[in-house]
Amino acid sequence: METREYRYTYEVYSSLDELSAEDRELADAAISALAGSYAPYSGFNVGAALRLEDGTVVKGANQENAAYPSGLCAERTAMFSAGAAYPDLAQRSIAVAASQNGVLCASPASPCGACRQVMAQYQTKAGKSMSVILVGGEMIYKFARVDDLLPFIFDNI
Ligand code: THU
């Protein structure tokens, strides 16, 4: 028997101004994507912005439905939209922002497990890392690759 350790790192920024110009642009796009959120049941608005390898930015926002499971998170809305419209372009970076009552949440919203799995698969499909930027009003987290959010990705089939 041996015990193995899984280590991951992420960057913490205290303001949008500290981000690189490219990451700042994507973070701003995630914040502006909040305008497309349809969340009449939870009141929790989420916006996502995805950068493709050619620089194209695709936005998404959570979409809720009276039949609850029929709704979709912001991240998957963006990734599936990009996957359908630009199937040959790698998804290189995704930024996520959340708000309640029109106010950006102070702490970053952390993607749900299903969204992490979908991020992982687009990363595997591309064969290139996808960074994840979680935007909060008081702090911003940046993960260099999806593996840092989801170890032991299911990719067996
Ligand atoms: N939601 C997202 O869009 N992304 C996340 O990372 C977490 C949760 C949405 C789903 C639902 O519309 C609302 O937030 C409350 O769970």
Describe this protein with a few key phrases.
alpha+beta, seven-stranded mixed beta sheet, 157 residues, binds tetrahydrodeoxyuridine
What does this structure look like?
With about 160 residues, the chain is an alpha+beta fold. It has helices at about 20-35, 75-85, 115-125, and strands spanning about 10-15, 45-50, 55-60, 90-100, 105, 130-135, 140-145. Strands 1, 2, 3, 4, 5, 6 and 7 form a 7-stranded mixed β-sheet that branches. A hairpin with a 4-residue loop joins strand 2 (about 45-50) and strand 3 (about 55-60). It binds tetrahydrodeoxyuridine. Tetrahydrodeoxyuridine (THU) binds near residues 64, 109 and 115.
Give a short synopsis of this structure:
Helices cover 25% and strands 24% of the residues. The protein is α+β, with helices and mostly antiparallel strands. The model has no long low-confidence stretch (mean pLDDT 96).
